[in-house]
Amino acid sequence: MVPDLPDCCPVCGEDKEDLAHYFVECPRVARFWLLASRFLTATVPAEYHTSDAFPITIDASAVVHGFDRWRKILPNHAALHGLAVWEVYRAHAETALDGRTITADAI
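The line above is the sequence of Reverse transcriptase zinc-binding domain-containing protein; the predicted structure tokens follow.
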């Protein structure tokens, strides 16, 4: 049995919360992906700065496809993706269940 999901986002109040909103579009999550992009871009070695995949910009496609575009320049790109998506899920669930809102910086 699947539990009923709330009709609106507990973080930003968006009327309809779907998977795209949950993992990409919510303003807090969008800020998290921006911060993650900046962090990952800063960690890429200089020899990859001319790559088509640089700088790293995390968009909906990158979230859905598991950071695959950066497999050559980010070691453990799949693990980084999994951890990032887990943190988004965890932070959102904590807000929905406990009412605690974790900032994008803290995620």
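Note on the example: The mean pLDDT is 88. The two ends are 30 Å apart (CA to CA).
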